[in-house]
Write a structure and sequence with these properties.
The protein has 451 residues and is an alpha/beta fold. Helices cover 35% and strands 22% of the residues. The strands form 2 sheets. Strands 5, 6, 7, 8, 9, 10, 11, 12 and 13 form a 9-stranded parallel sheet that branches. The protein has a 7-stranded mixed sheet with strand order 3-2-1-4-14-15-16. The two termini are 33 Å apart. Bound molecules: guanine and zinc ion. The site of guanine has 11 residues, from α2.
Length: 451
């Protein structure tokens, strides 16, 4: 039995602060011990109590000036776009044609895909993201490459082969039948293998014919428990294009609804320009939105209204997401920073507790995985991160003037990034330590890939 323990200040959410009084939704403890056993959290409690009951020979890693959190969850991202992060110019459709559809062609080569998956997952762990829902490319090998590395790291990740049969370069297109067959085979190979979860991935309505949309809805419905991811209402020109391509549908979201692609475990990126009626449909069907603020600002797509989405009259499940390569940072701290600014421009101030919820338990709730990840509780999977409260000179200086937990969290999300993450644990094992070299540790084995 593999057992380790960590000690320090902890923050976790037990409920949804968008729906209930904030004070009843989180638990902050100054000095906690968490015992990690066989991949799960087996015990958690105040250090003073725990020390009395733990075996005397257990090794406890004590993190001082730190905050221990559940690992961050990125609800929508594209691992193949790691190589085009920060590509200059224009809005969504031009950006897709000029950069994305060029880069994704490289993934016909599995060794290229494997290298990108390694870089991507290394970066995820460096920024404290322990679960990502990622698109692959149209090539089944791009999915195998991703899951093979994810499985080596024992991460709980969600991924799937992109489905596209029109309005894309010939080399990136499948057909309704081949997309269906490949998806089915990949589900059989990967869904539920260890911690891996499969996501049926129609890219977005403009790149799938009605015939493909039909077969995509069918393959998802035939495999209960699998996920489905796509994009919706990201950009105004895109929305007009969908109207032309699907004139018989009420709007963009209705295309997915009509083809049986909404429901629990469906995650749609963006939703920047959704109507009130569309929010109601998302609520009624239990479909989630991935809020991607760095991407929406980078591509000039618009300002997602988190407050409207979370309206307690008909709340929609929303998780925070990077949407890299249109997103500009792997870090969910940096993403919270931009979510705050987007909210400011929408006329309200996103509290730090709401922001941290949206990247942990709220994201797990959006993905219907809150029974497994997203919080620090006995029985939950031990995906845990340690944030350094003195990570940079300016953060250290600024923290002296932080007077409350909210202040501390707000400084972390405003000034924090990869440097803030001191350690990342996946399934109870430390897979990343920022200071490994300094502390002469050896365990970063999983991340010392040959690239
Ligand atoms: N819509 C369809 N594909 C994509 C993509 O790769 N990135 C973003 N941001 N939007 C999309
Ligand atoms: Zn996306």
């Amino acid at each position: 039995m593999h057992t380790i323990a960590i000690r320090g200040s902890t923050l976790t959410f037990n409920d949804n602060p968008f729906a209930k009084p904030i004070k009843s939704c989180f638990k902050y403890e100054e000095d906690t011990i968490i015992v990690l056993q066989n991949g799960l959290i087996s015990k958690i409690g105040p250090a003073a109590d725990m020390l009395k009951t733990l075996p005397s020979d257990i090794s406890i890693q004590h993190y001082r000036n730190a905050l221990i959190l559940p690992g961050f969850i990125d609800c929508h991202v594209h691992y193949p776009q790691t190589e085009i992060i920060g590509a200059y110019g224009k809005q969504l459709i031009d950006w897709l044609n000029k950069y994305t559809f060029v880069a994704e062609q490289n993934f016909r080569d599995k060794s290229h895909a494997t290298k990108a998956a390694k870089v991507f997952l290394r970066e995820c762990l460096r920024v404290g993201t322990t679960t990502a829902a990622t698109f692959c490319t149209v090539h089944p090998d791009s999915v195998d490459a991703f899951f093979e590395i994810s499985e080596q790291l024992n991460m709980r990740n969600i991924a799937g082969k992109v489905l596209m049969d029109r309005n894309a370069p010939a080399m990136l297109m499948d057909t309704p039948q081949s997309g269906y067959d490949q998806t089915k085979a990949l589900i059989a190979r990967w869904h539920g293998k260890g911690r891996q979860l499969y996501c049926v991935s129609p890219r977005f309505a403009p790149t799938s014919s009605p015939a493909q949309m039909e077969m995509t809805g069918a393959v998802w419905q035939e495999h209960p428990g699998t996920f489905l991811q796509s994009h919706v209402s990201e950009n105004k020109a895109e929305i007009e294009w969908v109207k032309q391509l699907y004139p018989e549908r009420k709007g963009y979201l209705d295309v997915y609804h009509y083809y049986g692609q909404l429901g629990p475990r469906a995650i749609l990126g963006h939703g920047v320009h959704l109507t009130e009626d569309e929010f109601q449909v998302l609520h009624d069907t239990g479909t989630a939105i991935a809020h991607c603020p760095t991407s929406n600002l980078f591509l000039g797509s618009g300002l997602f209204d988190l407050k409207q989405a979370m309206d307690p009259k008909r709340p929609v499940r929303v998780g925070l997401a990077t949407d890299l390569g249109a997103g500009t940072s792997f870090s969910q701290l940096a993403t919270m920073n931009e979510a705050y600014k987007v909210a400011q421009l929408n006329g309200y101030s996103l509290s730090p507790l709401h922001a941290f919820y949206s990247a942990t338990r709220g994201a797990a709730n959006a993905l219907y995985l809150d029974d497994k990840i997203g919080s620090l509780e006995v029985g939950k999977e031990a995906d845990i991160i340690v944030l350094d409260l003195n990570a940079t000179p300016i953060i250290k200086y600024r923290m002296q003037y932080a007077k409350s937990l909210e202040d501390i969290l707000f400084v972390l999300m405003t000034l924090g990034d990869d440097r803030t993450v001191k350690a990342t644990y996946v399934a109870g094992e430390r897979v990343y330590s920022r200071d490994a070299e300094i502390e002469n540790e050896t365990f970063v084995k999983h991340l010392s890939f040959e690239l």
